[in-house]
């Protein structure tokens, strides 16, 4: 083996590096300032390489593109400005966010972030509106009104009805200064301000006003010592919202039927403002009634003494001005007797009753289109009872498309019947019951929605020459039966009118007024209770968001959520929690807001 020892090697000319056409085999270390060309085989000691492969150790490599047919394992950190696909078994950190295009993110584990931005429309397994999860003490279904118990558990909003037998009653004098003889006061309930408003007539043939504030079983009255309008014979009143009432009455000087808007001022000595009085019938009119259709809408009925017609007429209010729609004739041959009108619940329909000539007690359905201020007769007239001179009668809507009618009939006895709307344009008459066998005249009937009973109030001519009595009425299907009589006032000449009393769910009592002959025709008020009602409605929390069994964790939709399990709602209307857990338009005491309807089946909780 030969050995060459030299400090330097050059080419033959001494101008460049020598060539080794057959390669160089080195068993030691090769040291150079740089390498150029392919480094084949092992390059474990290379620190800089171009087009290198098979490198091990810790070299620093600067490259353009890297293409790997196998796996790439990196113990440290990969830093890149743009990555197409990342499959990492550990944590991936992106300094300036992650942009995900087609395909989305599919995370098997937990996605954690300090906040999320963007639409959550397609997210599942979360609540998009406020809810609470609490243990329920009983079974719930979607849409149930739910109350919070003192132990923190949930229960349905329900009421317990305890019938009173005999029914309870109280009676007091309102005004001893003397009313006009043989007049019939009328009352209406201002549900927004919780006031009972009475119209009555003092000597001089003028209508006056007073309002009552209810506290428990008592009323404190504020009398407004100002004449409202000239009056004669009957009058009626309906509440149309915003402290406003429509009064319909026969005017003393011309005997014609008139209507006016009265806006009440409560507090202090009280007061009112009067709108423009309009005439709604050009001839002498007797026996009138009016029914509210909510804010600024009402329907009036009246009997013309001039042509014996019974008319219905729609009334629409703007501010305090009344626009009367076209009047519609219901009968061309009525006799001088009460004419009554009651709305079919919260629907557009109503029922009119009157006494037809030939001693035929009659009724017929109608409908009121509030958008066009138009009344339409429906179907044909129906005979309630023949052979009876029903001069005095009263009507009340109960529930389930049923009305309760009360009237003095054959032999002057009191009779009652259930009138059932057929779902179309007419009604049927149930079994007629004799509900009092004394000689009676004036009468009034109301429906106690909490006790599910009627209350009949009537003037008894056989006892005390006109004392005032009452009875509870129980409705079973299409029949009615009367409970025990209870005397309200033994004074002579108690003249209760068909609008003389009203049941007030807010107070849980029937309240009414009437004049009595006694000493200078004093004005009285009375209270009648058919049952004691206990309810947890004041502890309302929200609506059940689904069906839950007892002793399970239930999801309750609270303020701000939308419950879609209601029925029969009017869009835009505010609804209140009722004692039985339903929602209704009546604000009770205390007033508990259920929410505002956004469809017939959906309500925004608490708004």
Core attributes:
mainly beta, 607 residues, 2 domains
Compact overview of the structure:
With 607 residues, the protein is mostly beta strands. It contains no helices and 41 strands. 0% of the residues lie in helices and 47% in strands.
Describe the structure.
With 607 residues, the chain is mostly beta strands. The protein has two domains: 132-158 and 536-605, no CATH class; 161-165 and 185-535, 6 Propeller (Neuraminidase). It is 0% helix and 47% strand. Strands 9, 10, 11, 12, 13, 14, 15, 16 and 17 form a nine-stranded antiparallel beta sheet that branches. A five-stranded antiparallel beta sheet has the order 1-36-35-2-3, with no helix packed on it. Strands 22, 23, 24, 25 and 26 form a five-stranded antiparallel beta sheet that branches. The protein is elongated and about 155 Å long. It starts with 130 loop residues before the first strand and ends with a strand. The model has no long low-confidence stretch (mean pLDDT 88).
Q: Indicate the CATH class of the largest domain.
A: Mainly Beta
Helix proportion: under 10%
Our measurement of the CA-to-CA distance between the termini, rounded to an integer number of angstroms, reads 105 Å
Which geometry do the CA atoms define?
elongated
Kindly give the count of domains. Answer: 2
Strand content: over 45%
Structural class: mainly beta
Radius of gyration: 43 Å
Work out the helix count: 0
Task: Summarize the SSE layout with pairings.
Blueprint: E1 131-135, E2 145-148, E3 154-156, E4 159-175, E5 186-190, E6 195-202, E7 206-215, E8 218-230, E9 232-241, E10 244-250, E11 256-265, E12 271-274, E13 278-292, E14 297-304, E15 310-318, E16 321-324, E17 328-331, E18 340-343, E19 349-356, E20 360-369, E21 374-386, E22 393-397, E23 402-408, E24 414-421, E25 427-429, E26 433-436, E27 440-448, E28 453-460, E29 467-476, E30 479-482, E31 486-489, E32 501-504, E33 509-516, E34 522-535, E35 540-544, E36 553-557, E37 562-563, E38 574-577, E39 583-584, E40 593-597, E41 603-605
């Amino acid at each position: 083996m030969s050995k060459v020892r030299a400090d330097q090697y050059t080419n033959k000319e001494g101008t460049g590096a020598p060539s080794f056409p057959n390669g160089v085999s080195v068993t030691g270390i090769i040291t150079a300032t740089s390498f150029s060309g392919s480094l084949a085989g092992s390059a474990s000691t290379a620190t800089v390489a171009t087009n290198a492969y098979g490198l091990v150790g810790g070299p620093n490599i600067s490259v353009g593109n890297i293409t790997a047919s196998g796996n790439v394992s990196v113990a440290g950190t990969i830093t890149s400005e743009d990555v197409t696909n990342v499959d990492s078994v550990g944590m991936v950190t992106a300094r300036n966010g992650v942009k995900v295009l087609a395909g989305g993110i599919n995370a098997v584990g937990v996605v954690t972030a300090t906040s999320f931005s963007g639409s959550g429309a397609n997210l599942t397994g979360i609540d998009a509106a406020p809810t609470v999860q609490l243990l329920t003490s009983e079974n719930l279904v979607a849409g149930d009104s739910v109350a919070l118990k003192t132990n923190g558990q949930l229960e349905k909003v329900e009421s317990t009805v305890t019938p009173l037998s005999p029914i309870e009653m109280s009676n007091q004098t309102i005004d001893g200064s003397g009313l006009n003889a043989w007049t019939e006061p009328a009352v209406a309930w201002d549900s927004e301000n919780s006031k009972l408003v009475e119209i009555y007539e003092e000597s001089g043939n003028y209508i006056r006003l007073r309002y009552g504030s209810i506290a428990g079983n008592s009323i404190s009255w504020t009398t407004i010592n100002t004449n409202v309008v000239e009056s004669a014979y009957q009058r009626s009143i309906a509440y149309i919202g915003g402290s406003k009432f429509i009064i319909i009455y026969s005017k003393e000087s011309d005997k014609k039927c008139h209507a006016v808007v009265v806006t009440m001022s409560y507090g202090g000595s009280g007061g009112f403002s009067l709108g423009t009085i309009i005439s709604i019938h050009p001839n002498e009119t007797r026996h009138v009634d009016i029914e509210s259709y909510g804010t600024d809408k009402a329907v009036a009925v009246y009997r013309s003494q001039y042509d014996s017609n019974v008319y219905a007429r729609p009334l629409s209010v703007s501010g305090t001005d009344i626009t009367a729609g076209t009047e519609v004739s219901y009968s061309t041959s009525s006799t001088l007797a009460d004419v009554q009108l009651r709305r079919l619940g919260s629907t557009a329909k109503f029922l009119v009753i009157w006494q037809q000539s030939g001693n035929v007690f009659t009724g017929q359905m109608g409908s009121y289109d509030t958008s066009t201020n138009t009344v339409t007769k429906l179907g044909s007239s129906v005979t309630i009872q023949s052979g009876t001179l029903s001069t005095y009668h009263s009507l009340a809507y109960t529930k389930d498309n049923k009305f309760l009618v009360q009237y003095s009939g054959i032999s002057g006895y009191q009779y009652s019947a259930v009138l059932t709307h057929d779902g179309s344009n007419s009604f049927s008459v149930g079994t007629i019951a004799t509900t009092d066998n004394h000689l009676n005249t004036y009468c009034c009937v109301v429906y106690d929605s909490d006790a599910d009973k009627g209350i009949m109030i009537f003037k008894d001519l056989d006892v005390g020459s006109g004392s005032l009595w009452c009875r509870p009425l129980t409705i079973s299907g299409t029949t009615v039966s009367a409970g025990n009589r209870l005397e309200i006032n033994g004074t002579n000449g108690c003249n209760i009118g068909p609008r003389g009393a009203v049941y007030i769910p807010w107070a849980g009592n029937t309240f009414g007024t009437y004049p009595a002959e006694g000493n200078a025709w004093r004005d009285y008020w009375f209270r009648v209770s058919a049952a004691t009602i206990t309810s947890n409605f004041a502890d309302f929390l929200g609506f059940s968001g689904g069906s839950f069994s007892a002793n399970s964790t239930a999801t309750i939709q609270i303020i701000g959520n939308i419950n879609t399990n209601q029925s029969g709602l009017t869009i835009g209307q505010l609804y209140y929690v009722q004692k039985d857990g339903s929602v209704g338009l009546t604000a009770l005491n205390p007033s508990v807001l259920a929410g505002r309807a956004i469809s017939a089946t959906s309500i925004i909780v608490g708004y």
